[in-house]
Amino acid sequence: MSVLSINCGSSSLKYLLYDWDAQKVLASGLIDRIGLPDSNIVHKHNDQKIERKGKCADHRTAINLVLAFLQEAKVIHSLQDIEGVGHRIVHGGEKFSASARVDDAVLAEIKANGDLAPLHTPPNVVGIESARAVMPDTPQIVIFDTAFHQTMPEHAYSYALDYALAQKYKIRKYGFHGSSHRYVSERAAELLGGKNAWKLIIAHVGNGSSLSAVRGGKCVDTSMGLTPLAGVIMGTRTGDIDPAVVQVLADKLGEPLPQILNRLNKESGMLGVSGYSDQRDIIAGAENGDARCRLALQMQAYSIKKYIGAYLAVLDGADALIFTAGIGENSASFRQDVCADLGNLGIKLDLAKNKERGGERIISAPDSRVKVMVIPTNEEFIIARDVIEIVRGK
């Protein structure tokens, strides 16, 4: 029996089929440019990559294409081989602190939170509704990016706004990348000794980036806020800025608020400073003497370093600092830049170990009070496990 994971964007659908009992990915793929005549359809199975062009009118059609491929390629024999469908949902609002089985009430609550994530919630809902229509007898489970962070105390998630307005409109810090932070915190506890009383700082750094402070397996603070725009500098997002910058840009450029927010989300961050959003291009540029690339790398490391310092204070010290996600797992120079000059705070890298590649590992020096670790994230595992636990009642 397998779990189908679906992640819907406004014009795309990513999927992954996971055999839970064998702990194995069976197939994965992407359909993008949905709604256009030249949709891209990519399936991966048995180390083979199949690419097609065609018309995919909507997300329901996309799901049918995925299911047809899985059966044609004999990955599954019938839809009955799929035990449940897991949907990654960006925003669960205040109500959802754990994954949930979809029914009409759950779907209505997700829609009610739509104004908290207007770019993400509509396609997430389309994915759920399309899967329910195509597979009406298969359990649908929603896994929320925000759920892991619901353990934050009120003083950590609250904004210093008019209290009544904040309560009325649910304006608060929610946090994101929850499945990744949850997986990494669990693996770290196992690697450190099996108990779940550790104090951890987790740096999920990819094109989108967030940090979390975790005590005893529970999140006590995280860097992203009401939306994924807040926090550290990212590939195309600004991270934390003075809110008045929005007004200045609107006045100077004569652009409406949605266009300004699009600039902050998609045209800023490392891209805005250096001209590149890919870390490899920025590092290459810096090595070739590009001053803006060097500046972008310095700003990124400084931004993350400040959050590490803040979370050391929040936790009253830490047992481990953990790097994960694309940049966090794969860029030794990034990790070295972040950890530089943190020795007095108990963080010292072993430079040779830091350059090693692959797998879970400790990269701190023997005399580092805080262990520095690399743990590759596995959000698909969390999604599949939650689906299995809810469907099987475990």
UniProtKB/TrEMBL annotation:
Annotated positions binding ATP: K14, H204, V205, G206, N207, G208, D278, Q279, R280, G326, I327, G328, E329, N330
Residue numbers marked as site, Transition state stabilizer: H177, R237
Gene Ontology BP terms: acetate metabolic process; acetyl-CoA biosynthetic process
Family matches, as Pfam families: Acetate_kinase
Binding site for Mg(2+): N7, E379
Principal location class: cytoplasm
Subcellular location(s) of the protein: Cytoplasm
Keyword Plastid tagged: no
Key words of the record: ATP-binding, Cytoplasm, Kinase, Magnesium, Metal-binding, Nucleotide-binding, Transferase
NCBIfam families: ackA (TIGR00016)
Subunit structure: Homodimer.
Function: Catalyzes the formation of acetyl phosphate from acetate and ATP. Can also catalyze the reverse reaction.
Protein name: Acetate kinase
Species this protein is from: Candidatus Termititenax persephonae
The gene coding this protein: ackA
